[in-house]
Hints:
Blueprint: H1 2-17, E1 28-32, E2 38-42, E3 45-56, E4 61-66, E5 76-81, E6 87-97, E7 100-111, E8 115-125, H2 126-129, E9 133-136, E10 139-142, E11 151-163, E12 169-184, E13 191-197, E14 207-215, E15 219-223, E16 268-271, E17 274-277, E18 280-285, E19 289-293, H3 301-314, E20 318-322, H4 325-328, H5 340-355, E21 359-363, H6 385-391, H7 396-410, E22 413-414, E23 419-420, E24 427-431, H8 442-445, H9 449-463
Parallel strand pairs: 1-15, 19-20, 20-21, 21-24
Antiparallel strand pairs: 1-2, 2-3, 3-4, 3-8, 4-5, 5-6, 6-7, 7-14, 8-13, 9-10, 9-11, 11-12, 12-13, 12-14, 16-17, 17-18, 22-23
Helix pairs in contact: 3-5
Amino acid sequence: MPLLYFMFAVLLTCLSTGAVGGENAPKMEASVSSSGTLELKSGAKKLCDLTIGLFEKDWKQGQATAAEKAPASDNRKFSISAPGGTRVNGEVAFSEEGGAVKAAYKFTPVAMDKLNGVHVSAEFAIQTLTGAKWTADGKSASFPSDYKDMHLFAGEIKSLKIDLANAESLTWSFPEPVHVLLQDNRQWGPSVSVRMHVKGLAKNQTSALNFTLASSSGMNLVIDRPVTITAGPEWIPLNLELDIEPNSALDFSSFGFQDAPAGKHGRVIARNGFFAFEKSPDIPRRFYGVNFCFGAHYLSKEEADRIADRLMRLGYNAIRVHHHEWELVSKQKDSTTLNPEKLDQLDYLLAACAKRGLYITTDLFVSRPVPNKEVGINAPGNVEMDTFKILVPVVPKAWENWKTFSKNLLDHVNPYTKLRYADDPALAWLSMVNEGTFGNFVDRMKKVPEWNQAWNAWLLKRYGSKE
């Protein structure tokens, strides 16, 4: 009896507070993003996003992006671009009136040769609408639990109501008939679209789409606005510095994680499943490092010393030089010649790290831009990154390209260490080709004639004949 009484009391409480939905449920929240997207949430549950987009005639699509970083008003200016060159500029204003949200969209096509249509679309997860009832003017049906047909409804209407599973409802009201499409997207992904199309589009002329969106529980409009925080009783400035005071409690450089300079104990070797130094092969060594990518390698000398000091005091004893090749061969006659200015910056950074006991690992190919013509492909532009990886073992010109870059780098003498990269024990590990596991590219390899030739040659050598 006590348990039954408790359950009955909980049910009465839920009904009295509207916790199971209906008119007394908490208001639905409609949040406006910088690009004009409207997100609808019921409590903590997201219902849908109302996005702004377009389709070109070949069904390539574009989505609205914010046209200004810090809007001067609550109106949202946006731009929609698609791969075929279509571009539409627009603006949307949202306001709250009588517990509902009013939306007023304006669209101005500036390039529309391939334009199929512009729309505002409410995108729902399929589980949100499964079994829910929709009513478009006088026509009604339910969203199916299983996929049957892509088009659930299409027509010009003045009102659309969706009764959700939790006893809430959403209603779109249009001041004049609007073409609305209800589309089951399950052949592409688990979603349903409520797509409202814009009429009368013409180049450099403005067309409008207006509606009022209401919920049975009411609507609370939240507009994303710029926030300025100033110092005062509630906020005080915090001076955050990344550099660490030498010999402070946060300085780990005296804990023995580094033994500077890197390489003083000889090469790093692999022994019995662990790393060791050449001069003390029976003592396991642990390396803990960070990743440098792209332009992070190319610093002033002051910056290089500062970041090397910072890493040392944080307790690191290794760095990875990664995606370094783009700038290293920039503005050169070919993809294997090193840029002297960039190389000098890399030299100094590696020397600064080695001086403080940080060991180095790098790749001999990651994403270096290699023109097609340099590997014998008669086409403009560069070889796609992963394609180059699979060409290296079987295409002679790709092999020579990889080998020439590697030789240029490893034969180079660092003026700050007086050592060739190949001879520097601080350069502890080399990856020949980053993420070059051929199992990742089997389908691509089948389309390379040289791979088929090499595979057949291997089969013939191993088995002697086709039989």
